[in-house]
Amino acid sequence: MRSNIKYSEDIVPISDLKINPGKILNQVDKTRRPVLLTSRGRGVAVVESVKDYEEKAEEQAFLRGVVKGLMDIEEGREISLAEVKKRLGMGK
């Protein structure tokens, strides 16, 4: 998953997408970088591959889980491995 934006290539007026959508989609596929679509000089949407979008979503979910776990530990909401095994019916 790449993300280093090239401002000369990756910021495109939405009119370019309307004229030649295949060109924009091919660019995203080839470079694996998202394209920022603009309208009247302002960003309005991002085009990126589904694979990259899914990878980012999975990474965010994982990081949220890690942060939640760290907060639970910091606030004393933890249980022993033996208790986890007991709750899961894994015996000793």
Low-confidence blocks of residues: none
The topology string of helices and strands comes to HEHHEEHH
Total number of helical segments? 5
Q: Report the portion of residues in β strands.
A: 15-25%
* Gyration radius, in Å: 22 Å
Which CATH class of the largest domain is shown?
A: Alpha Beta
What is the CATH topology descriptor of the largest domain? YefM-like fold
Q: How many angstroms does the end-to-end distance come to?
A: 42 Å
Biggest sheet strand line-up? 1-2-3
Largest sheet: 3 strands, mixed
Q: What is the count of distinct domains?
A: 2
User: What do we call the CATH homologous superfamily of the largest domain?
Assistant: YefM-like domain
